Amino acid sequence: MPSRPSSLLRAFALGLTVSVLLTGCFWNAERRLEEDVVDELTDAEFYDVPDDTPAGQPGEIVRTKPILSAPLGSLAWRIIYHTTDLAGEDVLASAVLAIPDLPAPDDGYPVVSWGHPTTGAARDCAPSLLFDPFLMMTGIHEFLLAGHAVVATDYPGMAVPGDSSYLIGVTEGNSMLDAVRAARNLDPSIGADVTLWGHSQGGQAALFAAQQAAAGYSPDLTITSVATAAPAADLSQLMTDDLEYMEGVTIASYAFPSYEAAYASRYSKDEIRSVLTDAGASAVDELASLCLLTQGDQLHSLARPLIGSFVSSDPSTTEPWKTMLAENNAGGSPIDVPIFIGQGLADTTVDPTSTESFVESLCAAGESVDYRTYEGISHLLAADASMPHVLSWLRQVESGEAPSTC
């Protein structure tokens, strides 16, 4: 029987392994930092798409660009592609795609389409414009290691010129689906099986994407599941609850340009702004132009004095906002695939009771929902806290045994 290695030998082997791993991590971090700089030097011109760009089919690619700073073990691209808005009109959107640098399975890489949380409503607030375009893609490393491609839309109106689509569920959802189509048009090794995954604003987008797919928007894709963390599912309650907080003023200000654009054929700008106080009306355009991640101090200095005095009446009970918000509440049509929802119980942006009510409505409609709550977890950390459960839940979904807490 062979003798076991000595403690000294085991310690040496462990030390060598750690040294190799750390060296690899540092090398990868240094490589990505240098390549991020190179990427950033040429990004601006990539997103400047001419106004006269011809219309195209949903998912049709306008242009692509390799990303040098792809996560270790992956290949990545920036993509500009066609999608459709609330009115069914052709619009452009941008996305980031990453695929494992490994041979694809016979039926292609399964895809995770990621919907990011609120970063702002202006063009410059797009996550793909950050120094690290993968920074906000929660779970990207885990998904790549599990053999999934990951595509992350910016949503229309961000990065690429166009009207804001902030909290316009159909437009955001379509852009998540069409980002997958664009990814498949770019790389034929990407399969048709799709998991929709989103946090906060992205949770609303993912749920609407699932509804749009179930209604026949993307027959070429097979939506296998939808996972969300602290989803902005009930905008009517979100707007009511949050206007007494700085987050609510920020969210509401971001919604004005997108709702004015999306509902221009039904309501005038004056009708939509009639809910604002004089102080709110004076500040809303500047607030809506600021990015949450890069201009937070300026945003907060403007929003803080407006807490409790941004609007003159409750938008959820005042027309036309009552109708517009109701139309952008998730769950209004079937989803018909397994749903995961994670919710932090210390969340002051998306109230846990609102999410619980939404889950109850999904269960009552016959949907399969796995609902998880996390003690002490804030809104910001909801997606990270959910990831371990999302990964195990996806394995169960793929095996045909999707759990449900309904």
Automatic annotation (TrEMBL):
Signal peptide: none annotated. InterPro entries: AB_hydrolase_fold, Lipase_secreted. This is Pimeloyl-ACP methyl ester carboxylesterase. It holds the Pfam family LIP.
